[in-house]
Amino acid sequence: MKPFLTRAGTHQIAVTSALFAVLTTALTLVMWFCAARVLNAVLLELRQDWTLLLWIGVCWALRGTLQVLRDRVVFQQAQRIKTDWRQQLFQSQMQQNTEHHEQQVLGRTLSVLDEGIEQVSKFHERFLPVAASSPVLAGLVLVVMFTQDWVSALLVMVTGPLIILFMVLIGYAAQAYQEEQFSSLGLLSTHFVRTMRNLPIIRAYGWQHKALSELKSANSSLRVKTMQVLRVAFLSGFVLELGATLSTALVAVAIGVRVFEGKMEYLPALYVLLLTPEYFLSLRNLGSEHHAFMEARAVLPEVLRLDQPRKQAPERTEILQRPPEILLRNVSIARGTGMLLQGLNVSVPSGGLLNIAGPSGSGKTTLVSALLGMRDVAEGEILLAGHSVQLIHPDEWKARVAYVSQFPVFVSGTIRDNLQAGRPDATDPEMVESLKRTHLWEALQHRGGLDLPLSEGALNLSAGERARLALSRAFLKDAPLVVLDEPTAHLDPQTEERLIPILKDLMTDKTSVLITHRRALRFPGAKVLALSGETTHA
Question: Where is the ABC transmembrane type-1 domain (predicted)?
Fold first, then answer.
């Protein structure tokens, strides 16, 4: 409960709901009193009272207006809380190391940021307003009932908490199903993200049927878990309505017997009978919205898992002014419960080349993530220019490192937009020069040049042109540290051979890290670090 109540704006929702509950309950009490007076006048006194009917209409209209106003105020405040919470989680994830964003957990993370926050926000949007207003409504109604008929008041005092107790018991039973449902949603998201990321590989090896089978299985599991949650929800709704109906009937019978025996007057009896459903309405609302609270609580552990404390950014640094020397001292990197990389010792001089080789899954990209400060090492230390990578300010990483991924990102826009993504202040002549150095300008100058529109992912360019565009961006940045993560992984041998001189030109007079498992990209004079890919378990 505490993580919900500590959110900024929670107190305002509770106070607002309680104040509106006082006003609406007062109008409700007046409205039903006028209704009882009207019925008493018509049935027993055989007269009409239009003034009381007018008061009933006024109270009904004011109560409806207040309820609409309360719902709007609470909804707006709850939306602000939800937006702030989602932004906080998103920023927290952006500042976490890359082990938090592996494919195995990315699907779960996305489902938490989307559906998880939606479910957690139900606490502020649905349960909290009812939890704050129901005691006020029930308490005021109960006080008035005691002034009219203490016997009926005692009956509702006894039967009301029993309904809440049954609802809580059913809610605890439903929580397990809700946790399983959200877990199934995360599994489906993980399968979907992994399938979309590896779609070219899946198609190349003909694994479409296997991938489709995994998605169908995850979808079927989510469907079954969802139906289990709905089944319990319908059961709890039935118990709630049955309990409220039987309790109201019990009060009605007790009042009817005493009125028939002449021990109770008609007017207070009718007034109490009209107030009884209002008392149980508050409990019914609390019971029905208790499921929203249980759904939110079921997802809360996943949300708190993502809500990690932000890493304290180091002070601004000027470490990478020139090509840095790279030093790895007894570096070990964990994966799961084991060690993916262990005891690495490498020294690369300023302006040198580190060639990281090894089969797929051997930890090449993982090591580079640690080298760039995006992943913590389990043991040892990584130094750039004699300083720990953890001490380098994020702004310096962005400005002083040129990173070319095996999956370069291109946004929808123009060639100019994508080149300026790495260096916003670049001029047109500088961008043209970078394109000429990769021999891409010859292919683009008659197709629109820098103004050539690109689709998302630059799919209107060939694979070789996309690789050259990514290298052009690195040339334009002219950073002292260049990191190339298998830049020719998806190219044919002929295209790769044409890119080799371009890569040599890019790495000249810079400290460079080149990841590859192809012999064609192993340059003379490079420091070679061969990784085996064998994980050592503790």
Answer: 15-288
How many CA within 13 A on the CB side of residue 81? 27
Which CATH superfamily groups domain 326-530? P-loop containing nucleotide triphosphate hydrolases (3.40.50.300)
What is the distance between the alpha carbons of residues 147 and 272, in angstroms, rounded to a whole number?
A: 10
Q: Which tens digits make up the pLDDT trace of 352-368?
A: 888 888 777 777 888 88
- What are φ and ψ of residue 122, in 5° steps? -60, -25
* DSSP structure class, residue 452: -
Nearest Cα to Cα of residue 474 among 449, 499, 442, 494: 499
Please give the average per-residue pLDDT across 320-349, as a whole number: 81
- In this structure, which amino acid lies at residue 135? P
Residue type, 158: V
pTM strictly above 0.85: no
Q: Kindly give, in sequence order, each residue whose CB lies less than 8 Å from that of residue 404, ignoring residues fewer than 6 positions away.
A: 470, 471, 473, 474, 482, 483, 484, 485, 487
Element containing residue 272 per DSSP (H, E) = helix 266-306
Closest CA to 30 of 41, 22, 18: 22
Say how far apart CA 448 and CA 440 lie, in whole Å: 13
**What confidence tens digit (pLDDT) does each residue in 469-515 have?**
888 988 888 888 888 888 777 677 787 788 888 888 888 888 888 88
pLDDT at 249: 85
Evaluate the CA torsion angle 86, 89, 95, 97 in order and state its sign. Answer: negative
Topology at the third CATH level for domain 1-93+105-307:
ABC transporter transmembrane region fold (1.20.1560)
- Average of per-residue pLDDT values in the chain: 79
Beta strands in 221-289 (DSSP E): none
